[in-house]
Every structure is written in structure tokens, then in C-alpha cells.
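Hi Y.,

Following your request, here is the sequence exactly as I used it, all 17 residues.
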Amino acid sequence: MGFNHFLKTYSVFYVEL
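Below is the corresponding structure, written out as C-alpha cells. Let me know if you'd prefer a different format.
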């Protein structure tokens, strides 16, 4: 459904860590 969006969000979250 929104796998691309999930990947983007995860990337941002990982970078913020």
C-alpha cells in the first residue's frame, strides 16, 4: 500500500537516532 512511504519514514527515524 505505502511501502515507499514507510521506507522514507524509517529512514528519517533512523537518521534522527
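The two ends are 26 Å apart (CA to CA).

Thanks again,
Q.
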